[in-house]
Amino acid sequence: MVAILKRGVTDSQIESLCKWFKSKGLDTHISKGHYQTIIGLIGDTSKIDTDLLEGLEIIESATRVSEPFKSANRKFHPEDTRIEIAEGVAIGGGAFSLIAGPCSVENEEQILSVAKSVKYAGASVLRGGAFKPRTSPYDFQGLREEGIELLLAAKRKTGLPIVTEIMDASHLEFFENVDLIQVGARNMQNFELLKELGHTKKPILLKRGLANTLKELLMSAEYIMAGGNENVILCERGVRTFETYTRNTLDLAAVPMLKELSHLPVVVDPSHATGRARLVHPMALAAAAAGADGIMIEVHNDPANALCDGAQSLTPKQFEKTAAAVFAVRDAIKM
Amino acid sequence: MVAILKRGVTDSQIESLCKWFKSKGLDTHISKGHYQTIIGLIGDTSKIDTDLLEGLEIIESATRVSEPFKSANRKFHPEDTRIEIAEGVAIGGGAFSLIAGPCSVENEEQILSVAKSVKYAGASVLRGGAFKPRTSPYDFQGLREEGIELLLAAKRKTGLPIVTEIMDASHLEFFENVDLIQVGARNMQNFELLKELGHTKKPILLKRGLANTLKELLMSAEYIMAGGNENVILCERGVRTFETYTRNTLDLAAVPMLKELSHLPVVVDPSHATGRARLVHPMALAAAAAGADGIMIEVHNDPANALCDGAQSLTPKQFEKTAAAVFAVRDAIKM
Amino acid sequence: MVAILKRGVTDSQIESLCKWFKSKGLDTHISKGHYQTIIGLIGDTSKIDTDLLEGLEIIESATRVSEPFKSANRKFHPEDTRIEIAEGVAIGGGAFSLIAGPCSVENEEQILSVAKSVKYAGASVLRGGAFKPRTSPYDFQGLREEGIELLLAAKRKTGLPIVTEIMDASHLEFFENVDLIQVGARNMQNFELLKELGHTKKPILLKRGLANTLKELLMSAEYIMAGGNENVILCERGVRTFETYTRNTLDLAAVPMLKELSHLPVVVDPSHATGRARLVHPMALAAAAAGADGIMIEVHNDPANALCDGAQSLTPKQFEKTAAAVFAVRDAIKM
Amino acid sequence: MVAILKRGVTDSQIESLCKWFKSKGLDTHISKGHYQTIIGLIGDTSKIDTDLLEGLEIIESATRVSEPFKSANRKFHPEDTRIEIAEGVAIGGGAFSLIAGPCSVENEEQILSVAKSVKYAGASVLRGGAFKPRTSPYDFQGLREEGIELLLAAKRKTGLPIVTEIMDASHLEFFENVDLIQVGARNMQNFELLKELGHTKKPILLKRGLANTLKELLMSAEYIMAGGNENVILCERGVRTFETYTRNTLDLAAVPMLKELSHLPVVVDPSHATGRARLVHPMALAAAAAGADGIMIEVHNDPANALCDGAQSLTPKQFEKTAAAVFAVRDAIKM
Question: What is the ipTM of this complex?
C-alpha cells in the first residue's frame, strides 16, 4: 500500500503516522520529493482500511498495491480450482457443466419432467427455486422446504445433483443433501450468512450482486473461504444498468477478468440476466465463447399452462438446441 | 393494471387469458381498437407479477396503474405517520429528531462522552455501530453484543434512546432494549430478516440499498408492515453513481418523493452518503430544507487518536454548529 | 399510445383532452372502468411527447405501444439491412467484417504497416483515429486532417476501405473519401451533427453513448435516417457501470436485442469496451457468438516503442490469432 | 504522479521508462522497496495519460497526485470567481442569482409575460430554450434563431439578461447579444464546441452530463478555459441513476464538492433534475441550503393551455413562493 501525503505535512506528523503503522505490524518506506512525500507500507496491509487512511487530514490518497482478497487470489494459488459437485460432476479446472431447471419448483411431476429433459439434453446439474427472494411480500415465496424435498426426489430418480438457493442461515438444516448451495444476488453481502456458509464444507454458488463490482464479489467469496470453506463458484448474472429492454446487463468480460484475478470457477446465468427467452440462446453461446466454466439456464416444461412460466425460460426443445450449440462453441474455441 | 396485447392475437387467445385472470380473482375490461386490444384488470392486482405477464407471447406490455405497495401507501393512509422512539422522542408527523453518535462503539468512555456531547448539542437519539457490515472479512466487525451493552449503558446515563444495526434475525435477543433497530443498506432486500422484524413491535429504521429504487425501498417496508409492524422509518443514505469524489450520491429528492408516495417518516444520513466530513454540514442543511423528519450524523470524540475515526465523522464542536444551523433552516422553511 | 387518467377526472376534462389529441391528428378510444379511464390514441403518435403527457395533472401514466423510432424499426422493414462499405465489402444482411487498426494514426509507416498486417489476418476495413475526442484539452488531439490523409494513403496502397471518427459537421469536407464515418460515443446525442450526416449518403458507424439506452441509440439512428441517409451501422462499445477492473461493461445482449428491434447491422468494439488487451480476445469471440455483423479491434505495430500504444491494443500477431478464432466461432454457430 | 511498478521489473526496463519520462520533461524519483518499486514523477504531469501508463506491461498502477485540471483548480486560484452576466447581475464570489423562464420560447406574448412575472418575483436572469436538443427527430426542435430574437425582445423590455442553449458552434453568430450561453448536458463532451466557446469572451453555463463525474465536468470547463475564456459557470442538473420516480437524481453534494475543488461558481437546476413540478420547491430550498451560487427554475404562464407546458414547470405564483423561500433559506444559513 502506498500513501501519498498532503503538502505541508510536518516531520512530527509523519513520525506519528509511521508509529501508528508500526503498531499495526507494518514496515514503512518513506520517500520525500520536492512536491510530496510518499510512504510505502510493507507487510500484511489487508487489515488496513483505505477509507480510514484517506480520511486522515494529512493524507492525500492511499492506493492498495496488492488486492485485498487473499484466499481467492490467483497470485497465491496459480492453478485453476476444480470443484466436485457430485461424483463425476465438476466445475472449473477444465471441467464444464450445464445447469438447468425451472425458476420455481412447483410440484413433483413438473420437476421430474424437467429434470429428465435437461439431463437428456446434456445438463449435468438440476436447478430449481425452493426459497424464493421476491421484491414483493405478496408474490409467491416458493414451496420452501417442501420444494427442496421435491428436488431431492428428482435427484434420486435422475441421478442429477441439485443446486438451490438459501436465504437465511437458519434454513441450513434443509440443505443437508443439496449438492450446491446458491447465494442469490440480493444476499451477496449478507455477511452473517456468508460466515455461516464458511463453516460448512458445501460447494457454494455465489451470485454477483445487482450493482456490485468484481472486487466486492471476490471479497464476499473471501468471507466464505476465510471460514474454511474453499468450495466457492462465482456466478455472473447481470448487473443493473440504465438499459430497460433487458432486465439486467450481462457482463461477460467478468468471465476472463475474474479468471485472471482468481483461481475460482466462473458460471454464467443468461436467463436472469436478460429476462427474455429469445436472448438466452445467443447469450449462452457468448458465455461459452468467453470461457465460462458453467452455464445456468432456466427451462420450463409446461406448454399447456405457459402462463405460470417465466418470460425467461426455454422449453426443453429450445434447451436441447442451445445445449448442442454451446458444446459446438466450446469445441470451436479449443482449436 | 392494464395489459396491451400484441397485434394478431386471436379471440380464443384473449378468452383463455381472461379466464386465467378470472381464476386470479380479477375482473377484466376489454377494449378493442383498430391497432391493438387493451385489457384493463380490476381487483387486487398486487398479486399479479408484471414480469410474468410481459413474458407471455401475446402481451406487448403490462402497466400497473396502482402501486404494488399498500400498507406503506399514502393513498390508503393520507395522514403522516408519527413514530414514537421513546417517551417524548418521535419522528414523523411534524416531529423531528437529530440522531448522532459514532460509527462504531469502541469502549464505554468513548460512547458516553459522545452521547453527552450530542445530547448537549440537541440530538435526541444516540446512534452507534455494534454489529458492523464490512466488505472485507479482515476488517473490524464491531464489538457485537458487547457494543449493544455499552450503548445501553450510555442510554441509562444520558436518557437518550438508541439506534443500532441488526445483521441477522438470530441476533434479535440482543436488541430487546434497543429503541430503534436499523436495517442497513446491504440488507434492505434480506427478506427473511425483514419478515422476522415484521413480527416484532420495534420501530425499524430501514435504509435504502446502494442501488435500489424508491419503489423497492417501499416494497421492503411493505415486507415489515405486512407482518404487522407498522413502525417503519425510511432512510435515504445515498445511492451508487459514477461519481468518485463522494462515496455515494445523496438523493435528496427522495425525501419529498417518498413523502408523496407514503405516509412513513423519512430520515437522511449525510455522513455515509458523502463519506467526507466537510460535506456533512451543507448536506445536513440541505436535508432539513428538503423536509426530512430526521437527520443522522456521525460524531466522534477522539482528537488524540483521530486515526481510528472515520473520514466522515464530525467532532462534537462541529456537530454543535451543524445542529444549530439545521434548526435555523427548519425555522426558515416554516415561514 | 395509451393514457391512463387519474381517478376523479371530470367528463369536461376528458373532453378537453380529447379535443387536444384531435388537434394533433389522433383518434381517441375511451374506455371507462370502475376505477379508471383509459384513452387509447390511434394514429401517428410518434410526435406526442410522453413526458409532456405524464406531466398533465389529469394523467396517471402514458405508455407507448409502438416504438418511437420508425425508419430504424424492424416492424416496418423486416429484412436485415446490408450496407456496402466499398466494393466487395459489406456489413449486415449476412455479411460480416473485421475492422482493425490503431487507436490513433501516428505516421505513414505506422498506419501502412498495421494496414498490411490486419489485411493479411482477415480484416476487411481499416480503422484509425485522426480527430480524437479526449477528456483533457492537454491530451493528444490526433493528427486531424493530416491523419485522414495518411489513412487515405494506406487505403490506396492496400485497397482496404477506411473508417474514422468525425467530431464536428464543419469537418465534413475532409471525409469525402472516407468510406465509413464514425460518430463517437460522446457525440451520439450531438443532434446537429446527426442531422448533417443525414444529408449525406455516407455509411455511418454510430457508437452507443456511455450511459445511453438502446432506445436512445435507435432514436439517434433515426435522426440520421430521417434526413434521408439510411446507411447506419449501430455499434456497441460498452456502457458505464460501477465496475472498475474494466473500463466499461460490454453489453453483448445488445446485439440480439438491437437485431430484434431493428433491421440495421450491429458491430461490436471489444477494445474500447474493456480497455485491456487480454480481454479483447475472449470478448471478440463472445461478440461473434452473440451474432455481431462486425467486430472492430485495435491493433498496434510498435513493439520497440510500446509506450505510445494503448493498453487495449493487440499486436498484429495476437490479432491474427483472434481473427482466426472469430471465424471459427462464426462457423460453429452456423451449424 | 506516482507509478507503481510490477514485481520482477528489471533495472534496464526501469531505466528505459525513466528515459521516456525525461523526454516528456519530467523528473523522476525512484524508490525501491522489498516488494515493489515506486517512481514519483515531478513536473507538469497534466500531459501524461494515466490510461496509457497503466497499459504498460511493467506498470501495476499509476496515480495522479495533482488534479488534471489547472485553470479551474482552486489550488492555483484560491479566491471564488465572480462572473458578471450583465451590469449589476453576477454569479459567484458571494453573488447569487435566480434564473427563471420557460422550457421553450413559444411566442412573444408568452416570453414577455413570463419575463415580467419572474422579474417581479426576484429572478435576475431570464432563461428560455430556442435551440432544443430532443431525443427524437420528430419532437419539437425549438424556434431556433427566431426564439433568440424573442428572448432579446423580452430582454429589451424587462432589462433582464438572458441565457439560452447553443447546440453547434456554427450557430454562434445568433448568440452575439445573448448574455450567458448554455452548453447542455448532452454536449458537455462536445469538445469541438467547447474549444470554439473558449475563443469567445462570453460567460458560459456548462451543464454536467447525464452520467459524467465532477472531474469530467471540470475537464470540460478546462477545455473552455484553456482557450482563454475563464467565464465558466458550472451547473448541476441531475445525473442518471436507477430511480424512475424522478427523471434524474439531483446531486446536491456536487455543490460543496465543486466549490472545494474549483473557484468557479456553481448553479443548480432542480427543474430538469426532477422532472416534476412538485419537487422543484423543496429541491430549490435544498440547493440554497447546500450553498449554490444560483438556481435555475422553469416557469410557464399558460394556465389556459397547460397541455403545452412541461411537467416540471412552476406557475408564476408558485415561483413567487419558491423564490421567497429560497431567499429565507439563504438568510438562515448565513447566521
Answer: 0.90
